[in-house]
Amino acid sequence: MPLMLKLLLAVQVISALAIIVLVLLQQGKGADMGSAFGSGSSGSLFGATGAANFLSRATKWAAVVFFASTAGLAYVSHKGTSGPAVDSGVMQSFPSDRSVPQVPGAAPAAGGSVPGAASSVPGSVPAAPAAPAKPDASVPAVPAAPATGDKPAETPAK
Q1: Is residue 15 within 8 Å of residue 65, measured between CB atoms?
Q2: Where is the composition biased (Low complexity) (predicted)?
Q3: Cβ atoms within 10 Å, residue 22
Q4: What are the residue ranges spanned by the domains of the chain?
């Protein structure tokens, strides 16, 4: 890992921790009402409103440093990806033969076809019976259902 990458990573972690601490130290918007009842915020180290201004400014600059280090990390880490692929890896010693694996004990397939594709249906399966050419007269015909937009025919009352 290059020195610049390590340095930027350290700056990013430190600035992220600084943002977390600074945000947690800040008071919410509803904290001003407590000072009206004598919470004593005017006697603080930074004055009545000095702490809020200092913490918000410090948070702003910590965020600027964080985003700058993030952009720097993105630039440094993707700077060398346009070159050739890395030669070391898990798949380096994997054989480059990409042929279709054969079933053990089967004859090699001719013409590059998948082995066993011609005999995928066993010969002992009977053929399906053919449909009758004309309807059976013993079965009464069922009237077709009306279309979706049509009203069904009303039957007269007896």
Answers
A1: yes
A2: 99-147
A3: 19
A4: 54-79
pTM above 0.85, yes or no: no
pLDDT at 73: 93
pLDDT-flagged residues of the chain (< 70): 1, 30-51, 80-89, 95, 107-127, 131-158
Burial state string for 73-98 with b = 16 or more CB within 10 A and e = fewer than 16: beeeeeeeeeeeeeeeeeeeeeeeee
DSSP string, 76-124: HHTTTTTSPPPS-STTTTS----PPPPPTTSPPPSTTPPTTSTT-S-TT
| Closest CA relative to residue 65, chosen from 28, 108, 102, 13 | 13
- C-alpha–C-alpha distance, residues 44 and 20, integer Å: 22
144 exposed, middle or buried (CB, 10 Å; 0-12, 13-18, 19+)?
A: exposed
Burial (CB count <10 Å: 0-12, 13-18, 19+), residue 51:
middle
